[in-house]
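Lab meeting, item 3. Inverse folding demo.
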C-alpha cells in the first residue's frame, strides 16, 4: 500500500506533498519528506500524532485528547496549544484540520 501525505498552511501559501511507498502498517508509518527530514505519523480512532526529527530539533504534533505541538531543541522546549477543527476518515482518505496561533493547517493522507 502507498500513501500521499499532504501538509497545508493556507495563510502562508504552504503546500507540501510527499508520496510514501510500501506502507506496512497504515496506522503508523515513517517517511522522508521533501527536505530529507524523517517523519512519522500514527493514526488513532480519535486523532493523529506526527513527529518530525532533524539534527537540530524534534517537532511533535499531538492531535488527539488535549491537542498540542511541542518543539524540542538544544535551547529548550516550547509547547503550543492546538485546536482541532475537524478530523475525518472516509475509506482511504484522512483529513485533519487544526489551528496553531489562529492559522489553519491541514494534514491529508490518501491511501492507494
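The presenter then showed the designed sequence:
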Amino acid at each position: 500500500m502507498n500513501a500521499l501525505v499532504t501538509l497545508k498552511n493556507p495563510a502562508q501559501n504552504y503546500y507540501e506533498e510527499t508520496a510514501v511507498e510500501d506502507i506496512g502498517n497504515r496506522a503508523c508509518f515513517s517517511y522522508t519528506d521533501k527536505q530529507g527530514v524523517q517523519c512519522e505519523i500514527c493514526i488513532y480512532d480519535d486523532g493523529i500524532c506526527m513527529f518530525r526529527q532533524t539534527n537540530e530539533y524534534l517537532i511533535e504534533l499531538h492531535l488527539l485528547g488535549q491537542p498540542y505541538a511541542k518543539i524540542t531543541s538544544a535551547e529548550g522546549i516550547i509547547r503550543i496549544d492546538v485546536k482541532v477543527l475537524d478530523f475525518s476518515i472516509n475509506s482511504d482518505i484522512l483529513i485533519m484540520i487544526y489551528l496553531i496561533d489562529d492559522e489553519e493547517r491541514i494534514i491529508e493522507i490518501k491511501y492507494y
